[in-house]
Amino acid sequence: MNLEQKSPAGEVTPRWIQAVSVIGSFVAALWVIELVDMLLSNRLDREGIEPREADGLLGILFAPLLHAGWGHLAANTLPLLVLGFLILLSGIGTWVAVTLIVWGVGGFGTWLTGGENTIHLGASGLIFGWLVYLLVRGLFTGRPGQIALGVVVLLVYGSVLWGVFPGQEGISWQGHLFGAVGGAIAAWLLAERGNKDPQRTR
To answer: What are the sequence ranges of the domains in the chain?
Structure first.
């Protein structure tokens, strides 16, 4: 399915322009949400994931949209823009599918394994999921271009993968870990493996 859009004049919008528009709008929305949160004295932060609490399940829907202050959001902004843009070059539908899988797997995994009396929030789970998706999708599709891009992404962002391990206090390594798992699952589920047409019998 071709997700490129036509202008009123009938011209096809280049894929990279769509990518910039979509990921730019998504990240801008996160900044607007953080502004609203600040004006509400950080009340929205209570809507993050509360592990193994029934009410905390709703946090799976909201956690990636919420951040613990401007510094937290600023740290996530550039990786979101870069990694989201790279996935969007494969189409809006691909980005939506990858994001939903990472969002769901990362959120539910965090809800199951997070520490007691904690609230998990932030888009870093998406970052880890998008990162792992870009790293491994070429292994499933066998496409040289995707493999090469995965190597470049690994060289630039690979060091952040240490964030899937416990260590730094106040950091949701569970969100990172299960976001990464979601990215691997998305790469496997969405891979176009180039199946050949079955042979016809006469």
So the answer is: 15-190
